[in-house]
Amino acid sequence: MTDLSQPSQPAPLPGSGAQPEDSGTAVPPPLWLLAELTYRCPLHCAFCYNPLDYTDHNRELTTAQWLDVLRDARALGAVQLGFSGGEPLVRDDVEVLVEEAHKLGFYTNLITSGVGLTEQRLGDLKAAGLDHIQLSFQDSTQELNDFLSSTRTFELKQRVAAALKRHGFPMVLNCVLHRYNLPHVDKIIEMALALGAEYLELANTQYYGWARENQAQLMPTREQLEEAEAVVARYRRTHGGRCKIFFVVPDYFERRPKRCMNGWGAVFLGVAPDGAALPCHAARGLPGLTLPNVKDTPLREIWYESDAFNRFRGLSWLKEPCRSCEEKEHDLGGCRCQAYLLTGDAANADPVCDKSPFHDSVVKIVQRAASASVSGAATAAREQPILFRNDANSRKLAAAAREPGVGGDHGA
Ligand code: FES
């Protein structure tokens, strides 16, 4: 998953040098458009951030509708564009969308598992103007890579990585970390170096979507994290000039929350496969939030006027203890999705913060992970097997959520 917290500054619109349209409000324009082209995916990752009920939202926008989204977002001022999914390459129009995005002046990034990235498509995407490809791995070993994605894709990813180099793309590898692969961080870095990666993003699992369902199996111990951080620091010293290594710390182990999405409705605009507009990639899981759809509402209206994008924008909605907190301008109350998942109210302070009355819920999750030894985790996985992201499981979860009285799990 790409780090959304550090957006680039907006560039002038191509052509005339004109600036993004004036909104007439104090709200800045979106900078980052994430186009989730499809929920279809050949992988079944246990930590996927797609919504659990994604099978209920699988009527995808057409190519023409996506082209309109790109034009409207660029007119609003967006400059960075990520194509993701699911696996975006299951659609055969990615090249068309990249070409238009390039003409519009977006900096484009394809976020992919590598499945479907043939030599032909790589060449076509290069010709269309694609700037950047982020290739995901699940681990440095075939066994764990293939287990966690429930596929046989490890060797394919190695071949794709080599092909990326041949086609002159910067090599950006991404690996989501958790208790099973944190002990292999050195091997993961070695693999990235051997493949010639210029960038390696080691992103600790964020517990939304399918990862939240699998939290008991995936949550690491503090010792695992500290050891992995020390390994990363060592490699940065010895190989930092060759490969830039990012290590995204899991916020359950912090005492202050992250400034999630760099603020709600501040820089990030996501569009789901069915056209739902998302203030954050996990917003679909928030009950009571009606997501506007690009099929029936102009993007400008969605960004500036919709309830979904204004609900947690700025600071005026904050409740105590955030409202009177001197740090509120820094973290903006933290993550809304985490607040909902752990307290049942998205407007509460993110319970990662130790000033939150619900902070204990986070402490208990971390303690539970500490008390489960690695062999204990294997036992737990047998007793409560990992729930892989696939259509059958999604349909079951969607059906269960539709039953009256069945809500999210807000307990810790
Ligand atoms: Fe939704 Fe943080 S993930 S606000």
From TrEMBL:
Cite the EC number.
Answer: 1.21.98.4
List, alphabetically, the PROSITE patterns matched. Answer: RADICAL_SAM
Pathway linked to the protein = Cofactor biosynthesis; pyrroloquinoline quinone biosynthesis
Offer one Pfam family short name for this entry: Radical_SAM
User: Is this entry keyworded Amino-acid biosynthesis?
Assistant: no
Q: Which CDD domains match?
A: Radical_SAM, SPASM_PqqE
Q: Please give the SMART domains that the UniProt record associates with this protein.
A: Elp3
Keyword vocabulary terms for this entry: 4Fe-4S, Iron, Iron-sulfur, Metal-binding, Oxidoreductase, PQQ biosynthesis, S-adenosyl-L-methionine
Region listing for Disordered, in residue ranges:
1-25
Details of cofactor binding: Binds 1 [4Fe-4S] cluster. The cluster is coordinated with 3 cysteines and an exchangeable S-adenosyl-L-methionine.
Q: Where does [4Fe-4S] cluster bind?
A: 41, 45, 48
Q: Which residues form the Radical SAM core domain?
A: 27-242
Q: Which GO terms describe its molecular function?
A: 4 iron, 4 sulfur cluster binding; cyclase activity; iron ion binding; oxidoreductase activity; S-adenosyl-L-methionine binding
Similarity-based family: Belongs to the radical SAM superfamily. PqqE family.
Q: How does it assemble?
A: Interacts with PqqD. The interaction is necessary for activity of PqqE.
Q: Give the function comment from the record.
A: Catalyzes the cross-linking of a glutamate residue and a tyrosine residue in the PqqA protein as part of the biosynthesis of pyrroloquinoline quinone (PQQ).
Q: Entry's PANTHER family?
A: PQQA PEPTIDE CYCLASE, RADICAL SAM DOMAIN PROTEIN
Q: What is this protein called?
A: PqqA peptide cyclase
Species classification: Bacteria, Pseudomonadati, Pseudomonadota, Betaproteobacteria, Burkholderiales
